[in-house]
Design goal:
Two copies of one chain form a homodimer.
Chain A lengths: L2 H15 L13 E6 L6 H4 L7 E6 L6 H14 L3 E7 L9 H8 L11 H13 L9 E7 L6 E7 L4
Parallel strand pairs in A: 1-2, 1-3, 3-4
Antiparallel strand pairs in A: 4-5
Chain lengths: 163, 163
């Protein structure tokens, strides 16, 4: 049995189980959550969210790239999202490495968005969201750091400031 | 209580529940799954996967963009992924629209990767993966279309061919 066969079989079990699914496309809590593709993260569970409440965006590192801005413009303008949360995490494959090392190792001559320092990366990413013209409808953004061992998140950056 | 307060409270419940979490970063099934940010999709559940088994990448549409290639280079070279699945879905916000309409509606002058036709979009995205030089370690890729109403997936494109 190939990996693809296993996945199709897994889907047959999912369909048979007839799990309740949300019907509406707009996220009920008007929320978009960006996080890392890391296999250990259960994005909705970590923040006590349910299916149907948020858009979930994931890439290497949970970084605000051009593609994330593309997706969020759709979230905000087409599907009514008003709060954006960026959740990066400890023990990330993009931390403690550099573009030079990753280029040497992979042969790909691209910007990998490595994370030299979690606090700075989250602050930079929140700044990038806030300064993006097409996202001016957004009411609030926050940058969280997830401790991959304990599951606890720490608030590292937010906009607007205050409490 | 602000939305951020609610999320932090949700995280406290998650930490208290002490849910078992995988410890290792490399996905156990050496799999990466790209899908849409859509709030109705539970990516692992749809394919019968568990936490710790796959990288999960999500953006608007589940399209193979430059940022997805960046992330997958890390998946493949750093974390041992060998199979890549692209899962797009019916009732997608990027289907039945155009770049022109989205630019007018959002004010963002970018490529939104709209989906004119699901079969073509999946085939194009699989082709883009297969022709990406740095992904030559990959053994297999598949393009699936998820029916958002029934939860069933249909195999639309795959590489290599055959069965």
């Amino acid at each position: 049995m190939t990996e693809l066969d296993r996945l199709l079989e897994g889907n047959q079990r999912y369909v048979s189980a007839d799990t309740p699914r949300p019907k509406d496309a707009p996220p009920r809590r008007r929320l978009a959550l960006l996080t890392c593709m890391d296999t250990r993260i259960d994005p909705l569970a970590v923040l006590g969210l349910g299916l149907g409440e948020a858009h979930v965006l994931r890439n290497a590192g949970g970084r605000v790239t051009g593609d994330v801005l593309r997706s969020l413009v759709v979230s905000v303008h087409v599907l009514g999202v008003r709060t954006i949360v960026v959740m990066q995490h400890t023990q990330c494959g993009l931390a403690r490495t550099t573009d030079e090392e990753l280029r040497r190792r992979t042969g790909a001559d691209i910007d990998f968005y490595p994370i030299g320092d979690h606090i700075k990366a989250l602050q930079d990413d929140i700044d990038r969201l806030v300064s993006s013209g097409p996202l001016h409808f957004v009411h609030a953004t926050a940058g969280l750091l997830l401790d991959i061992e304990t599951g606890a998140v720490r608030l590292v950056a937010k906009w607007p400031g205050g409490h």
